[in-house]
Amino acid sequence: MDxxxxxxxxxLMAALDPAMAIVTTAAGDERSGCLVGFHSxxxxxxxxxxxxxxxxxxxxxxxxxxxxxxxxxxxATEIALARLFGEDTGDDMDKFTRCGWTPGPGDVPLLDAxxxxxxxxxxxxGTVDADHACLVLEPIEVSxxxxxxxxxxxxxxxxxxxxxxxxxxxxxxxSG
Length: 176
Ligand SMILES: Cc1cc2nc3c(=O)[nH]c(=O)nc-3n(C[C@H](O)[C@H](O)[C@H](O)COP(=O)(O)O)c2cc1C
Known about the structure:
The chain has 176 residues and is of the alpha+beta class.
């Protein structure tokens, strides 16, 4: 993209004010998770969901060896949880000692404070010519209709001032 167009593109994306998600996963006895703004349904029949993980993140590192992921849609009130998963990195600390969670399918951590979520099986985790890799999920377990009905999602605007634990131009092994 032309450098002049980048600020306008960032403003346009921010104006969409997407709902935020927290993705968690586990591989062996390791757990990881991060705040994500890049995620979307990408199939109807069969249902599919895509999440884009920064290749700089600890979550990407663990996710490459994982089969199952939980995609949580935190309520607007859970700013502290968003800060934990968006500003801290599993490279330096265990986020799961600092929040309530329960092991789900395949021991994927399910965050107690974010009951609107689904668990998905990874179908593909690919890289493109970008700093985020696309993870495609097949939903296998979804939160109850009651939880969804009463839910007010956290949106980008509420967390736009957080400082991500890893800058998108980092690469694992060089700075993470
Ligand atoms: C507002 C906001 C949106 C973010 N969106 C994404 C995203 O879509 N994908 C991603 O991989 N990281 C995203 N991040 C960055 C990670 O959440 C952050 O670097 C985190 O500390 C990584 O943790 P980890 O190294 O333990 O995986 C976002 C951070 C913030 C503050």
